[in-house]
Here is the input.
Amino acid sequence: MAAHQHSNMRPDMLSVEEARTRMLAHFSPLETEERPIVEALGQTLAEDVRAPFDLPTWRNSAMDGYAVRREDVQDASPSRPRVLRVIGQVAAGQEPRQRVTPGAAIRIMTGAPIPTGATAVVPFEDTDESARQARGDSLEAIGVLRPVEAGANIRPAGEDVHAGDVALPKGQAIRPWEIAVLASLGVARVKVVRRPVVAILATGDELLSPGEPRSAAKTYDSNSYALAAAVARDGGIPRRLGIARDNMQELHTKLGEGLDSDLLLTSAGVSRGDYDMVKEALRERGEVSFWTVRMRPAKPLAFGLLDGPGGRRVPHIGLPGNPVSTMVAYEQFVRPAIRLMLGKAAQGRPRVRAVLEGTIQNVDGRRVYARVRVVRRNGAYRATPTGPQGSHIITSMAKANGLAICPEDVPLMEKGQVVDVEMLDWNEEVEL
Ligand code: AMP
Ligand code: MG
Here is the structure.
């Protein structure tokens, strides 16, 4: 089975890595903008965020209980409670007004600042408070039932972050947890790398938009919708331009509209060999290369730098028309480009090694990205192909949660073999 070898050698075919490297050389983080913290979700920090004050800001109580001097309760026990005078109470948000003097205690709530003089907090359950309450006794005194260690149930100031330290580093992607840190530091707006605007154009005389009535020999445009959703999910701002018919005037009008973006995606019309109006129109707009990439699906691919307004050069990625090809090429080339513009690393999806539950055929020495469903069974990942693998089988993507990779030089992968899978979704298979 070496028949496929020759195509491996074809000098005009780029490997996925070569194509990606050539493309990604033209992308870098976009300018910064200031955003309200919640709206910055998914963006990356454009600068270090330093803590303007300690977190926790003051020593505070980790429990509801009594602030005491440790030495006052050293020999306390349930049979011989150590009784202290309760001289006050402090709730979260209040500043303690008294100090804890020998023989005294202050009732304290979680998060409240520790009064001076106190060296530990005794939780309610280690006192006779509930017994006193049940008896209807006043709480002017409290019995401590157990000794405590110095510092017990006290959260030191600065234990989380010290004033002046970097709480979140530049480049950090903002997740709900980073938003919590920012809010804790009193930060309402944050400087982040702005999101790329990604213009998306479907091309083809055969295309209809969903919502339009069906018509003989016509196909609904799915690519521009799938791409818009993928862009949004990866943190970009999709701008769908609709459909351009295969005529120069419409193509030029629509391409023109797309040049007001950070990246222009087109679908279809980039196959090698056949004459295509899309290619012609792109060529008139700037420098465009038409590639064949040693992958299946998504062999044809275009990359260009188009002449935008004000002399700006707008990167263009021309994706193949077949729906699965578009989606797989998006994963390999567009997603990393969007990540770079967002100030993130261009890294791909997480990979797992899975036991193959079917076969993957590689007829012509390209790298095959096979749609699979990965499940974890008895501690091992298992990958089952989702059915026919044609690049027009749209539901093969909908059923998949990963792309299994059959290398260029492997003509056949069989059931039981171990395969690398790029996970499109990650945590769905983790049982709760
Ligand atoms: P082409 O690259 O123009 O030869 O198109 C290849 C295949 O993809 C054809 O079957 C097209 O009908 C199909 N196709 C092109 N654009 C889209 C689209 N936006 N949505 C769904 N299928 C498409
Ligand atoms: Mg076409």
